[in-house]
Amino acid sequence: MAVTVALLGAGRIGKVHAKAIAATAGASLVAVADAFPDAADALAAAYGARVSSIDEIAAAGDVDAVIICTPTDTHADLIEQFARAGKAIFCEKPIDLSLERVKSCLKTVEELGATLMLGFNRRFDPHFRAVRQAIDEGRIGEVEMVQIVSRDPGAPPPSYITSSGGIFRDMTIHDFDMARFLLGEEVASVYATASVLVDPEIGKLGDYDSATVVLTTTSGKHCSISNSRRATYGYDQRIEVHGSLGAVSAENQRPISIEVASADGYTRPPLHDFFMTRYTEAYAAEIAAFVQAIENDQMPSPSGEDGLKALALAEAALKSIAERRAIGMDEI
């Protein structure tokens, strides 16, 4: 039988997940909830689902799982509500902007034995997974250094900055998770520096738009992360892992991968200009993995604990900037 899924949130990312559910064998979207009725109606109609309230979905006997795409400040409460309702849960990152609230939420999830998966979609990108596979196969020996470049084409509006938790909790958090995914060891210390180089309004709100972070493990492995809210040439997403026997990297992706040679030189098409097109395959693959975990009665990955550790790295980065020093993770 198909795993029946309800979608909480019919906005931009909700639409991405609805498409992924429809493309996943063994999954069916049966209900949609959103604070804006028109958005819920449109998405439900597109996929043959019904519009329901959150409480109705929690009580529904024909809903196996929920995908939470609502604002961040609702995530922890919804996770707890649906854990108590016996539903499997997929939630977009982060669980909350407070480490203590995340810990209390995960304690509830553990006590109830609930299934919870966090939306770190980049782990499912086929290019990044191929890098991890090369590491696992020993093709580059022991990992020594990781470099992650993650730069957005443009800064979000100020209204988003105030609700997102800032660049480290919202943007770099994906890179923190990717660093853990690739290093194969937990991070022991964090050193960060950040500036406002793109939009002065971001600085007025207490945030940054340009950042560099260095993560170091106990054994001395390290990862450097470069973030910017401005990349005039497109959505810049690259990783490189250097090891004792060689290196492996994943380059930027383009909607069309060709190269034209002429008297003017070599030209290539522009990069993807948005995360929803760059990571289309990753979004589909993570939902397929969530459904498979439910079918096999397994705990999915990334877990709530992965979300907690990534958020802790974000907190360490902020503390590092404030105190102008490296921060040990035992201080967080």
From the alpha carbons, calculate the radius of gyration and give it in angstroms.
20 Å
What is the general shape?
globular
Total strand segments: 15
Query: How helical, in percent, are the residues?
Result: 40-55%
CA(first)-CA(last) distance = 44 Å
Oligomeric category: single chain
Strand content: 15-25%
Largest sheet: 7 strands, mixed
Secondary-structure-derived class: alpha/beta
Uncertain segments: none
Strand order of the largest sheet: 12-11-7-10-9-8-15
Mean pLDDT value = 96
Instruction: Count the DSSP helices.
Output: 13
Report the order of strands and helices: EHEHEHEHEHEHEHHHEHEEEEEEHHHE
Description:
Its EC number is 1.1.1.18. Residues 4-120 form the Gfo/Idh/MocA-like oxidoreductase N-terminal domain. Keywords: Oxidoreductase. It is an enzyme of class 1 (oxidoreductase). Residues 128-248 form the GFO/IDH/MocA-like oxidoreductase domain. The protein is of the alpha/beta class and 332 residues long. It is built from 13 helices and 15 strands. A 7-stranded mixed sheet has the order 12-11-7-10-9-8-15. Helix 9 packs across helix 13. The chain is globular, with a radius of gyration of 20 Å. The N and C termini lie far apart (44 Å). 43% of the residues are buried. The mean pLDDT is 96.
Q: Which key features would you list for this structure?
A:
332 residues; 15 strands; 7-stranded mixed beta sheet; 6-stranded parallel beta sheet; globular; alpha/beta; 41% helix
